[in-house]
């Protein structure tokens, strides 16, 4: 249930939708769960377990890139509908924009997805998402950090398919994410560096983040 006292304390509208963006391993899911718990919001998480294509994608990008992108697009769109039906009050782990702007684009530009498949994917994405009927998040929290720390966390987390993936893939994602966020203007952004906060061990970290959210979101949510 939404924690009205906390929302009021930090000036965060009760029905906000906040998406957490950032490269793999940077700490999105951890922050998503911590913020949702503090605010009493629901979470919208990515399907990693029981994802029929993710393992296959890491084993063979070229064969499975298109399938995986279609899968994530469908999943995120279903989640979007759920958030809309509940009327907000959600923290979402990864925004839909990252799928198209980072992952699908990377697959296409590296020749892992054919031009026809990429055109099909982007036209579907544009028809579904880039319309006035699609509610954008009230805030995107972009989590960033040092590359080496992110790699350490991917290893600590222990998903085998990610651990065995060539480090060049993570370097490319890291660099594309930096460029992407510098040019993103579809929703308000709060940038936080994971090295400045220790949300797992220090409660005051969350307090700082909630204060920042309230300052930015308050001026933008209708
Ligand atoms: N603030 C933090 N301090 C230390 N470890 C963290 C922190 N945030 C996340 N982690 C750890 O880093 C790993 C990746 O975090 P996760 O939230 O799963 O990242 P993402 O969702 O961005 O891929 C996990 O093992 C998690 O426990
Ligand atoms: N759109 C995507 N294309 C390829 N891979 C993706 C996409 N969205 C998520 N992923 C992968 C990256 C990770 O291996 C898992 C979960 O992401 P995380 O950043 O750890 O939450 O799915």
TrEMBL record:
**Which residue numbers delimit the Deoxynucleoside kinase domain?**
18-217
Which Pfam families does this entry report, sorted A to Z? dNK
Q: Which UniProt keywords apply?
A: ATP-binding, Kinase, Nucleotide-binding, Transferase
Keyword ATP-binding assigned? yes
- Give me the residues that bind ATP, please: 22-30, 153-157
**What GO MF terms are annotated?**
ATP binding; deoxynucleoside kinase activity
Signal peptide per UniProt: none
Q: Which domain of life is it from?
A: Bacteria
Q: Where is the active site?
A: 93 (proton acceptor)
What family does the database annotate? Belongs to the DCK/DGK family.
Q: What is this protein called?
A: Deoxynucleoside kinase
Organism equals: Culicoidibacter larvae
